[in-house]
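TA notes, week 10

Several of you asked for a full example with nothing omitted. So below is the full record: C-alpha cells for the whole chain, then the designed sequence directly under it. When grading your own attempts, check the secondary structure regions first.
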C-alpha cells in the first residue's frame, strides 16, 4: 500500500485529481491511499506517509515542508499536470521517484 498526502492550499480543489490518481493506480494494480490536506495541516498528516505531493499553488512552502517532514520525499506537481488533472502522469512520476530511492 502506497500512502500519499497531497498538499494544496485548502484541500478543496483536489478531489478530482485524487480520484484520477486512484483510477491510474488501480489500472496498474497498485494499492494506494491518498488524501488531500491544506498546507497548514500537512505536518499532522505524516504518520505512515510514503510521499507528499505539493500542488503548484503551495510550492512556495516546499522547502519548509521538507525540513519538517524529512526523510519523507516531497514532490512538486507540475503546473501543466495539475491544471489538466493528469492523474496518470502524476502517479507515474511518483512511482518513478519511489523506485529510484
Amino acid at each position: 500500500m502506497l500512502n500519499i498526502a497531497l498538499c494544496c492550499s485548502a484541500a478543496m480543489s483536489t478531489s478530482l485529481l485524487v480520484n484520477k490518481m486512484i483510477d491510474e493506480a488501480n489500472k496498474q494494480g497498485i494499492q494506494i491511499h491518498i488524501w488531500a490536506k491544506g498546507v497548514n495541516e500537512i505536518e499532522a498528516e505524516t504518520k505512515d506517509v510514503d510521499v507528499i505531493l505539493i500542488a503548484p499553488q503551495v510550492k512556495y512552502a516546499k522547502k519548509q515542508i521538507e525540513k519538517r517532514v524529512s526523510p519523507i520525499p516531497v514532490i512538486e506537481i507540475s503546473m501543466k499536470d495539475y491544471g489538466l488533472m493528469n492523474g496518470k502522469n502524476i502517479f507515474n512520476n511518483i512511482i518513478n521517484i519511489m523506485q529510484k530511492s
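The chain has one domain: 2-100. Use that as a sanity check on your answer.
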